[in-house]
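README, section 4: Worked example with a bound small molecule

Sections 1 through 3 covered apo chains. Here we extend the same pipeline to holo records, where the ligand is supplied as SMILES alongside the sequence. The molecule in this example is glutathione. Nothing else about the input changes; the structure line simply encodes the ligand pose together with the chain.
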Amino acid sequence: MGLLVDGKWQDKWYDTSKTEGRFQRQDASFRQNISSGDAVQSGRYHLFVSHACPWAHRTLIFRQLKSLVAHIDVTVVSPIMLENGWEFNGQLGDADPLYQHDFMHQLYTKAQSDYSGRVTVPVLWDKQNHNMINNESADIIRIFNSDFNELTNNRYNLYPKRLQAAIDAVNDWIYNDINNGVYKCGFATKQEAYQDAFQALFRALDKAEAILSEQRFLTGDYLTEADWRLFTTLIRFDAVYVGHFKCNQQRIADYPALSHYLRSLYQLPGIAETIHMDHIKQHYYISHPMINPTQIVPAGPALDFTAAHDRGEWTLDDVVLTTD
Ligand SMILES: N[C@@H](CCC(=O)N[C@@H](CS)C(=O)NCC(=O)O)C(=O)O
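The generated complex, written as structure tokens:
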């Protein structure tokens, strides 16, 4: 794991020495949108992802739900991320079909030769102008939600105006305490930092459990981006975060509403194909040798997301708004 400094790769772990052992995520740097009109073209944009990564996973889910599979190709990096950062490896993931790079950091320096910062997935790339459109999943899912509607004729709106305030409010605590919260637990290097993140994480999971015991989705009757942002952390939780990141007060399987909700989302058409548990487990357990020096990947737990759930029978048409 490392980062680019003035366009040069350096193999360095996260620095927690100035933050009392607390992990702080750096903001993404490439934050363009795709303007409507001419810029919206089938086959012009390319998505670079890791199947391990919960942030990249959001973008793959939106690519499915928004009928973009035929229009935006995907390249999957190797799940093993060590001294060279994310790598292209035709055996464990895909080779780089655009530039035959060996490493993801080469894509960043192609976009900006003096780039300084972390080299993260997902990346939305413009093949026509050979530049990086965006490397922030929160933006990419909004681009997918709205910018290609003319091309696909898919009108599902996972960030509808009338729910935006509610979605933003939910995203805020779910991002800080759950999505990023598991990383704050796992990457903490001081007991107190871990303890604080752990308490905030399970307070937030208890809150999500209470909300979902009362209503179908996080913001009420409609499925929105807030649900998918929570989903990608929940699906990894029992397999990885409980053990590897020490998020072990209880499992998602021990929360009745959360576990049924998780299965109901998993069982929607197109979603199971976005989940690759082998990449998820290999990535975390092998790529963080300071946390797991033997790099042994646990064989369990047995998880069955196809089991029945009690959240009712519904399709996307029933629960996703198609209005602004
Ligand atoms: N804000 C970014 C975060 C992406 C991110 O941190 N991805 C992780 C993988 S799960 C990564 O690439 N980490 C590499 C690093 O930090 O060096 C987003 O949501 O798109």
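What to look for in the output: The longest strand covers residues 45-49. The mean pLDDT is 96.

Section 5 describes how to batch many such records.
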